[in-house]
Amino acid sequence: MDVNNDYAVVIGGVNIDIVGYPYSKLIPQDSNIGGVKLSLGGVGRNIAENLVRLGVDTKLISILGDDIYGKKILDEAKKIGLDTTACRIIKEGSTSTYLAILDENQDMSVAISSMDIYDKMTIEQILENENLIKDSKICLLDTNIPEKILKYLLDNFQETDFYLDTVSTAKAVKVKESLGKIHTLKTNKLESAALTGIEINEDDDLIRNWNHLKEKGLNQVFITLGEEGVFFADENTRGIYKAENIHPENTTGAGDAFTAALAYCSMRNLNIYESAKIATGASLIALSHKETINPEMSPEKIKEKLEEVKLCMKNI
């Protein structure tokens, strides 16, 4: 897991996350006694921070408000070495905010996203950073950014390897007509079904989803399955990795850590088996911490975690 001098670009969401969780069983439509935590978030920002913690030189392109939350995000990025010089600050704008309520199992029960500021992201901002994107080893996208920006990137940077995180079923459909221009897709069962029209209930459905995506031109896919692990596939390989006896502290950051680790592996030319394994290890590191980003995330910690857990592999 040696670090090289190549860099990654992340273009995506930057949020302030407010997460509430009950001390006992969550009771809908009632006031629940529990805790509330405020932290930095956003799928793109989370992926970028995890990449930095994995030792990857990372540039973030996003948009945020000229408010206390925006300043906090920039200050914290500077502390960890995340390059935010390509971010745009909107005067009198409000930084994107994500509000989530967890249930007694630490799974998300409901969430509200206030992300109107992303409507102010422009193609001009992309053009200002054209060389930065073209010269990157890998470019990661999330679907929080406007559909017109995603389409422009995928249409006009065809030599760039794009890794895309679908984020949600509602936002995943932004790239439904551009799947063939994405190198690697990280998604979940519901989001993949939104793209393919094929509901996933069993292993054969995973294969049918992959065949649909492959026919569109996708190089590889990783479909996260919650407690059942992750399905991965490329032209020559299909399988599922599953970790046994996992007791998560917080599930909100696992997917972002997984995506970051995929990029980390790609930049080191690891095969899909190793990529799925290491990305699973990264997600387990994230799951083991109450915060969205585990500050102990590192290649060494991933290696230790994979030596601790029982990881089962199934070919399908």
Specify the structural class. Answer: alpha/beta
The CATH homologous superfamily is termed Ribokinase
Give the topology string: H per helix, E per strand.
EEEHEEHEEEHHEHEHEHHEEEHHHE
The CATH topology is given as: UDP-N-acetylmuramoyl-L-alanine:D-glutamate ligase
Rg, please?
A: 18 Å
Largest sheet: 9 strands, mixed
Poorly predicted runs are 1-5
Q: Give the tally of β-strands.
A: 15
Biggest β-sheet: strands ordered side by side in the sheet? 4-1-9-10-11-12-13-14-15
Gap from first CA to last CA: 28 Å
Average pLDDT value? 94
The CATH architecture comes to 3-Layer(aba) Sandwich
Share of helix among residues? 25-40%
Provide the number of structural domains: 1
- In DSSP terms (H or I, runs of 4 or more residues), the helix count works out at 11
Shape: globular
Give the amount of beta strand, in percent: 25-35%
Describe this structure in words.
The structure is a single chain. The chain has helices at residues 43-53, 68-80, 123-128, 130-134, 147-156, 169-172, 189-196, 203-216, 254-267, 272-287, 299-308; strands at residues 7-11, 15-22, 34-41, 57-61, 63-65, 88-90, 97-102, 108-114, 138-142, 162-165, 184-188, 220-224, 230-233, 238-243, 311-315. It is of the alpha/beta class and 316 residues long. It has a single domain, classed as UDP-N-acetylmuramoyl-L-alanine:D-glutamate ligase (3-Layer(aba) Sandwich). Strands 4-1-9-10-11-12-13-14-15 form a nine-stranded mixed β-sheet, with helices on both faces. The chain has a four-stranded mixed β-sheet with strand order 3-2-7-8. A hairpin with a 5-residue loop joins strand 7 (97-102) and strand 8 (108-114). Helix 1 packs across helix 9 (254-267), helix 7 (189-196) crosses helix 8 (203-216) and helix 9 (254-267) packs antiparallel against helix 10. The radius of gyration is 18 Å and the shape is globular.
